[in-house]
Design a protein that fits this description.
Length: 811
Amino acid sequence: MSTVREIFETMEYGPAPEAPDLALGWLKKHQNRFHPFIGGRFKDALNAQTFASTNPRNGKPIATVTQCGQAEVDAAVAAAAAAFPQWSALSGHIRSRYLYAIARQIQKHSRLFAVLETLDNGKPIRESRDIDIPLVVRHFYHHAGWAQLLVDEFPGYEPIGVCGQIIPWNFPLLMLAWKIAPALAAGNTVVLKPAEFTSLTALLFAEVLQQIHLPAGVVNIITGDGSTGELLVKHPEIQKLAFTGSTEVGRIIRQATAGTGKKLSLELGGKSAFIVFDDADLDSVVEGVVDAIWFNQGQVCCAGSRLLVQEGIAQRLEQKLRVRMESLRVGDPLDKAIDIGAIVAPIQLQRIEKLVEEGKAEGATCWQPSWAVPQEGYFYPPTLFTNVEPAAQIAQVEIFGPVLVSMTFRTPSEAIELANNTVYGLAASIWTENVNLALDVAPKLKAGVVWVNSTNVFDAASGFGGYRESGFGREGGKEGMYEYLVPSWEGHVNAGLSDDAKPENADSTVRSVELIPGPSADSGVDSSGTGIDRSPKLYIGGKQVRPDSGYSFAIKDGSGNYCGEVGLGNRKDIRNAVEAAHKAASWSRATAHLRAQILYYLAENLATRAEEFADRLAVSPGHSREQAEREVTKSIERLFYYAAWADKYDGQVHPVPFRNITLAMPEPWGTLGIVCPAESPLLSFISLVAPAFALGNRLVVVPSWRYPLVITDFYQVLDTSDVPGGVINLVTGDPNELGRVLAQHDDVAALWCVGAKALSEDIERDSSGNVKSTWVNFGKGRDWFDDRQAQGREYLRRATQIKNIWVPYGE
Ligand code: NAI
């Protein structure tokens, strides 16, 4: 037996296992066999296929679970659809009480939930007990509040319908809570599929729903692998899909849902930067790294997996890290003194091993502690790579294991460049004692969450979600609620539009444009009637430029008579316009006051030339002189409206239950593409461009294909209103072609399109490459004169994405 002195010297301590009896008893009660939860009951498998759920600690099966097929998916969706009318009609207060009851019940059974989660997933009990389950409970309490406040806080919005939700295995119950709580609070019903490795806590959760008497069908749980997920994605009665998992599957889902009208939110992979400046408190940094990359075995989408250290302190920090890594404990996840548990499954372990071998082969230096991990079960030691090239595979690919790669930088701007040198953009953390530096760097990082002197902290009041290929949409906070609501006006669009004005008709007509060879400026056609040739070109980088094709296309008036021609833009012109928008990046940092001033100036200059614009519009298809005047007047009013908003659409400070200021900042996307509809050519253009411009985006716009002359006239208004070159770029031409080019372009961060139905589908499919956020209309018209449909917060919300910055306070 060791002496006290020896114990103090080695700091060795014996096992402190959490008893598994409660969870094993629950498994036994079900004879270790689990069925899907449909319509409020566990349904005996219609489908005889099953699969085993194993304990990663030892690889032994602990339960047999149904592999749901078409019949179960159909039954679950039907149950959710049947439950929707009643559930959505309940008062917010009643829904709130159900959510509150769920929170209470989970809290009551938290030990059972925690142990079961650890048995099924392999995560340390310390984490499931102290992090996962408390956050789950907090999420349901918080969203009980949103249900109560729905009418007050989301006027003009309504629930979507049946939501399909697909979650991963790294935080099984927590991801369930992140999905189900907001969906129910908003009045939707749900079919959720847990990951195949970790179905059990979702099924225990279903029992909780029975205990609190949640109406049958409001929540349905179907178990199975990716093929079950695919059936859910494709089900025609699903109106909203929420997915967390790999970017690869996220892309597949984006493509599979393209054009279906299903609302989508994606929370995908990450390769988050952990930035350490040379004035940081290095001991805190070391503990921060432990939480960043060894929390949950590194199987965390926002894991701080790229350590970026200022050069002067790199060696010292790496040495401290090696010492700390040597003392980490890997082993039985049910042991309360364990730091790192088991990897979820052999396939994930193999993925990690393969990537580590590739890192070594690429020439990086790999360091692991001297001790060995247990042989039984799926364990992997904490690993540190140094000497890593920024372009190396291990610096770019999400490893999803306890593997940290370290790189150095010299200056803050180099740190920002390195941090942003990734296709992902989920999270980042900044370590410095200089709050000015931290708050200067945070907005420059392309990431949805930025933690200052902290990492991997979460709360239901604060939104979570990514930039770029980390997906779109937010979970948590007010911003997360919008993912489960739709503006009520969306159900009323298309009304009042003549058939001719319906965007569905756009694609057939636009393909029959009359092409006129030769650069438009030299065509010799006097379209103005003034004797001066005014055939307009494209507007890129603040200048008129000839279209690459050298072609222009003829524009006809309402009676089919020739009334002018404009340049026919192509792929190359869009690329040039995106480049110009990219170069105009300083616009996104301009003050809101300046943006408002320019919008007022645009309105003023348009007002000065109102007669001229009305004349132009009066000859466009479907326009009387009176309508034309109305359209100009309304356009001026709308410019004023967004000038008013520019310095008022501000963020929030979320009240999270820590000593923390959590700033929710709406940030512009960067380069935003806009495809305008054929109808109301001036007003629809202003209605889409003004909000995006007001909030700091740089725009590449495809104006109305049918009557772009009013927009090409607008070039002069832009020129005389101090709009910086490159902030608004206009490429006239076929929206069906140009919209797709915008969708495929990696430097376009988001894309709005009001156009033909087929184009919505193309855009959603083509945008899956860089997982762009898109806002399309599925061929439905909008009444641009109706303020409820054509202006408001929804436009402003769509023009931004929320970044949450966590700033702790106190010593
Ligand atoms: P995955 O993306 O395949 O699985 C996530 C969920 O999607 C599971 O429920 C799965 O059954 C389902 N799924 C798989 N294929 C589907 C399809 N075609 N249609 C609909 N649903 C489908 O992730 P996987 O294979 O478990 O892990 C692979 C890698 O993905 C990891 O190494 C990690 O890099 C990343 N990952 C990221 C997560 C995150 O939180 N961002 C979570 C899990 C994995």
